Amino acid sequence: MRGLFLTFEGGDGSGKSTQAALLEEHLVGIGREVVRTREPGGTDLGVELREIVLHRRGEMEPRAEALIYAADRAHHIATLVRPALERGAIVLQDRYLDSSVAYQGAGRVLDATEIRDLSLWATGGLLPDVTVLLDLDETVGRERLDGARTRYDRLEAEASDFHARVRSAYLELAAAEPERFLVLDGSRPVDELAAAIRDRVSDLLD
Predict the structure, then answer these.
(1) Are 40 and 33 within 8 A, CB to CB?
(2) What DSSP element (H or E) covers 181?
(3) Listing from the earlier edge strand, what are the strands of the sheet with 181-185?
(4) How many whole angstroms separate alpha carbon 184 and alpha carbon 167?
(5) Using an 8 Å Cβ cutoff, are 95 and 20 in contact?
(6) pLDDT at 80 over 60
(7) d(CA 172, CA 77)
(8) How many Cα atoms occupy the beta-carbon half-sphere of 30 within 13 Å?
(9) What distance in Å separates the CA atoms of residue 111 and residue 125, rounded to the nearest whole number?
(10) How would residue 154 be classed by pLDDT, with cut points 50, 70 and 90?
């Protein structure tokens, strides 16, 4: 029986990791196998690619950046995510193809359709069963990061207009696929967000 593929999206500081951890705890508590992962960096190869794409010093051509993300995604889905789904596990993933459309498409001002098509080709067309989008004003996200980080990666360090474009792109993606996206106000209390996410996942499990 095929498992479930859930992804968490949103701007930097939106709370994706917190909500993924809470959902993992809930699902393990009811006896489900959970595989929690992230992009980039969900495999050994992905860790190396993550270091290049997020922490390499100097300029990187936007198309090169998009291709590195796609390479990580192709390997990650083929070697970790698909095998987990095939054995019936629930995969909780921090970022997927919507991140590339938002960050490289809107943020880097590349063609969003080309970026999406590249990711679909890389993954054999795999789409999540549900994508949780934690929507948060980019200035609030920055304030959260400022309180938690001493080092920013290449994308986190971009100017506010970059992150505003990313947020707008996410909302456009969600509006185009309302059946896949669960859009939540990232400023709501953590427990309220967790409950809303659990409700959506429970519907799928039922």
Answers:
(1) no
(2) strand 181-185
(3) 34-38, 90-94, 4-10, 130-135, 181-185
(4) 13
(5) no
(6) yes
(7) 25
(8) 12
(9) 19
(10) low
Tokens for 87, please give them.
């054995």
Q: Does an H or E element contain 62, and which?
A: helix 62-76
* SS3 state of residue 38: strand
Helix axes 62-76, 44-55, angle to 10 degrees: 160
DSSP per-residue string spanning 91-137: EEEE--HHHHIIIIIIITT--HHHHHHHHHHHHTT---SEEEEEE--
What is the spatial distance between Cα 185 and Cα 112, in angstroms, rounded to a whole number?
24
In angstroms, the Cα distances linking 45 to 3, 59, 153, 174, 193 are 24, 22, 19, 30, 33
Sign of the dihedral through C-alpha 148, 166, 195, 26: negative
10 Å CB burial of residue 77 (0-12, 13-18, 19+) is buried
pTM (2 d.p.): 0.91
Per-residue pLDDT, averaged over 150-177, amounts to 84
Burial per residue of 52-69, b for 16 or more beta-carbon CB atoms within 10 angstroms, e otherwise? ebbeeeeeeebeebbebb
